[in-house]
Design brief:
By secondary structure, this protein is of the alpha/beta class. The protein has 4 domains: 170 residues, Beta-Lactamase (2-Layer Sandwich), CATH 3.30.450; 106 residues, Phosphohistidine domain (Glucose Oxidase, domain 1), CATH 3.50.30; 106 residues, Enzyme I, Chain A, domain 2; 310 residues, Phosphoenolpyruvate-binding domains (TIM Barrel, Alpha-Beta Barrel), CATH 3.20.20.60. It has 27 helices and 23 strands. Helix 8 packs antiparallel against helix 10 and helix 18 crosses helix 19.
Length: 785
């Protein structure tokens, strides 16, 4: 296979391997699925996995594709024997063109591997100690290139972690079988069929996989959040008169409003006004005449207040579920929360369902925003929810609070009780119930490592990102929501390099006016003042559409009517947004950023619209900031090619790598079929970044860079070497990027980047990145999204 193809296929394989454990029942099946996949994807005749036994000296064949399956479990060798043993001895790669001629070659009749000549073996590690070996073989003698070895090394690293998890799963499964055996024997004993065995008092360990909703992990006892019993809908005979039911309904709504005000104040006090904003939205719905009118209509049909609220809330929830936009779809949880609060008031269930006396992990069928608002945050170690969405307000709050959370199937959580102990892993989505000492020990070690790293990063939070030879790199945050302010500042952001303004539009059923927008932008600017906030104008189309704005069907939306093209055609939308920005501009430091610009004509048109809108806003009596920096995003090859002309007309560039990669390589970043073509390390992409940085430098102006590529510490060093001294990244990534930049000189970064620009293959670039990263304790990101 060609080296480039080997690398891209290897990366695609890496993405699929971690999901295999979900479809496997035990360690052997997991490993067999892995070797089948690797052999198929890489195109080798054989792929095998050997694991070290507990004695640390015996290697056993656990899975193979290509060798005789009957040899699995039978073929064993000492680490001092064979080429497989040589991999363990060297703790490194063994690549041989003609294996049978090698002096360490050991023949096993059971495997029938005399047919295969080439041999490539790589060790699997657990805490820097070999735990096994993965091998690929081909029939024909051949040598393996550095790119092929690099690709398989990346795969072997992933397999190592899966082997560790699979072994943990196996130990848990064995203990579950043990527990089941004792339970069966206990039943037989009670029926007189068996001799008594000592019963096990504790529940056996088990593990389940869910969806990671908030990062971090914790170990602790359980508190189950129990809702008030679900009431059967009241029939017309059970309900009071229409007048009585309406009176009860409006009284319940008033009580719910008071509760909501309390929740809003509590969250504003414990978190921030931005986090509390969700409850202001709840108040607006409680005061919405359309909502109350629908409930009254059903009461007039003799439904009764409880049934009427249930039905109206359910209709709202269903409407949200049907929406294509994920942000709006996730608002269904807020409607459930509001409905539950009103019904609790109708039924007199107004006390909190759970009061925490000590620190516990919360287990619930569903976590709603009011649950997190009412509970004592200091006593919540973690959350396991039986349903929900990672972008719901409840989990947004959990992230703000730093509480690890996982969404797992409720049917697997039903039997969990206060007597149980749980590990919640919000990084991987794993939940361990009554973990054994080995699992607990592993997580305690991880907790210690995590705490140490957090201490190290917190020590440099307030320090500048200054290279060892004195070059300052500005680290800004990418934000989208009001509650991102707290996270960005907590991680040491020096401002905002990209404020994505789409969410205020998505959270409504019509376009917001300039006054609505000005209120939102003012909060963002005041939150970061005096630091700069770069506000990108509306970027809809492509993969972001508004439910209330009809968008034409397009064969290729990313190449179509989107972003600045849409804004320039629907000028009234752009003018209203610019007016909102201008009206808020005196409350902080605003930088205006226009996306997807590809020509000088567009820049001229945007400048005219901005000037006209500014005069209009001033004429209406609104003060406007004296200076507003005007920037454009460099996201298409056309803009790169005319960068020298564009920079004369603007104050700064912002390179948007997510779109620049897909447009440069004709690879839709959302199309899983062509993931391997979306490559941030393609030479063309890196040359484009260098070219834009050079254009800005010659004009004495800034070129910043935003996009997922910049969030990797190793990539940040490469980008510095390419001439980028301002990065806008995900806020939690800032400390690690800062640490990497403070450990190196700009001169060294430039030498490294120049060497990368001299390479013509992304495979070779990735290999050199890996070598450089290993020497500096940093890793290559296999793929950016």
């Amino acid at each position: 296979m060609h080296e480039d193809n080997f690398e891209s296929v290897g990366l695609r394989t890496l993405e699929d391997i971690s999901s295999l454990i979900l479809h496997s029942h035990d360690l052997r099946e997991t490993l067999q699925n892995i070797v089948n996949l690797v052999a198929k994807r890489i195109g080798t005749d054989v792929c095998s996995i050997y694991l070290l036994e507990k004695d640390g000296e015996t290697l056993t064949l656990y899975a193979t594709k290509g060798l005789s399956r009957s040899a699995v479990g039978k073929v064993r060798m000492n680490t001092s024997e064979g080429l497989t043993g040589l991999v363990v001895e060297r703790k490194g790669v063994v690549a041989i063109e003609d294996a049978p001629s090698h002096p360490r070659y050991k023949y096993f009749r059971e495997t029938r591997e005399e047919r295969f000549h080439s041999f490539l073996g790589l060790p699997l590690f657990e805490h820097k100690s070999p735990t096994g070996v993965i091998i690929v073989q081909t029939r024909e003698p051949r040598s393996f290139s550095p790119g092929e070895i690099s690709a398989l090394t990346t795969i072997s690293n992933q397999i190592s972690s899966i082997v560790i998890n699979a072994r943990l799963l196996d130990s848990i499964r064995v203990k579950e079988e043990e527990r089941d055996f004792f339970q069966r024997e206990l039943l037989r004993m009670k029926s007189g069929e068996a001799t008594p065995y000592p019963a096990r008092k504790e529940k056996g360990p088990r593990m389940m996989r869910g969806i990671a909703a908030s990062p971090g992990f914790s170990i602790g006892g359980v508190s189950v959040l129990e809702r008030s019993a679900s009431t059967p809908s009241l029939s017309p005979k059970q309900a009071g008169s229409r007048q009585e039911e309406k009176k009860l309904f409006f009284l319940a709504v008033e009580k719910a409003k008071i509760q909501t005000l309390y929740l809003e104040k509590r969250v504003a006090r414990t978190l921030s006004k931005e986090d509390a904003a969700i409850f202001h939205t709840h108040l607006m719905i409680l005061e919405d005449r359309g909502f109350t009118a629908k409930v009254q209509e059903l009461i007039d049909q003799d439904f009764g207040a409880v049934r009427a609220v249930e039905d109206v809330v359910e209709s709202y929830v269903d409407a949200f579920y049907r929406m294509d936009d994920p942000y709006l779809r996730e608002r269904s949880a807020d409607m459930k929360d509001i409905g539950r609060r009103i019904i609790d008031c109708l039924l007199g269930n107004e006390r909190p369902a759970l009061e925490l006396r000590d620190k516990r992990i919360i287990v619930a069928k569903e976590i709603l925003p009011s649950d997190l608002a009412i509970l004592d945050h200091e006593k919540i170690l973690g959350i396991v929810s039986g349903s929900g969405d990672i972008n719901s307000h409840a989990f947004i709050m959990a992230k703000s609070l730093g509480i690890p959370a996982v969404i797992a199937p409720w049917e697997n959580l039903r039997t969990v009780s206060r007597k149980d102990e749980i590990i919640v892993d919000g990084n991987t989505g794993c939940v361990y119930i009554n973990p054994d000492s080995k699992v607990k020990g592993e997580y305690e070690r991880l907790q210690a490592d995590f705490s140490r790293k957090q201490r190290e990063l917190s020590e440099i939070r307030d320090l500048p990102a200054l290279t060892t030879d004195g070059t300052s790199v500005v680290l800004l945050a990418n934000i989208a929501l009001l509650n991102d302010i707290k996270v960005a500042l907590a991680n040491g952001a020096e401002g905002v390099g990209l404020y994505r303004t789409e969410f205020p539009y998505m959270a409504r059923d019509s376009f917001p006016d300039r006054n609505d927008l000005a209120r939102v932008y003012r909060k963002i600017l005041e939150g970061f003042s005096p630091l700069p906030v770069t506000i990108r104008t509306l970027d809809i189309g492509g993969d972001k559409n508004l439910p209330y704005f009809p968008h034409p069907e397009e064969e290729n939306p990313f190449m179509g009517w989107r972003s600045i093209r849409l804004s320039l055609e629907k000028e009234e939308i752009l003018r209203e947004q610019l007016a909102g920005i201008l009206m808020a501009s005196t409350y902080g430091c605003v930088r205006l950023l226009f996306p997807l610009v590809s020509s000088l004509e567009e820049v001229e048109q945007l400048k005219k619209i901005l000037a006209d809108t500014k005069q209009e806003v001033i004429k209406a009596g609104n003060p406007v900031a004296d200076e507003l920096q005007f920037g454009i995003m460099i996201e298409v090859p056309a803009a790169v090619q005319i960068a020298d002309f564009l920079i004369r007309e603007v104050d700064f560039f912002s390179i948007g790598t997510n779109d620049l990669i897909q447009y440069t390589l004709a690879a839709d970043r959302n199309n899983s079929k062509i993931k391997q073509y979306y490559d941030p390390y393609h030479p063309a992409v890196l040359h484009y970044i260098s070219q834009v940085a050079d254009s800005a430098a010659r004009a004495g102006k800034r070129a910043s860079l935003c996009g997922e590529m910049a969030s990797n510490p190793l990539n940040s060093i490469l980008l510095l070497g390419l001439g980028i001294t301002e990065l806008s990244i995900s806020a939690p990534a800032i400390p690690a990027v800062k640490k990497a930049l403070r450990s190196i000189s700009r001169k060294e970064a430039k030498i490294f980047a120049d060497s990368i620009l001299n390479l013509g293959s992304s495979v070779e670039i990735r290999r050199q990145m890996e070598i450089f990263g290993n020497s500096h304790g940093l890793s290559v990101t296999a793929r950016q999204s």
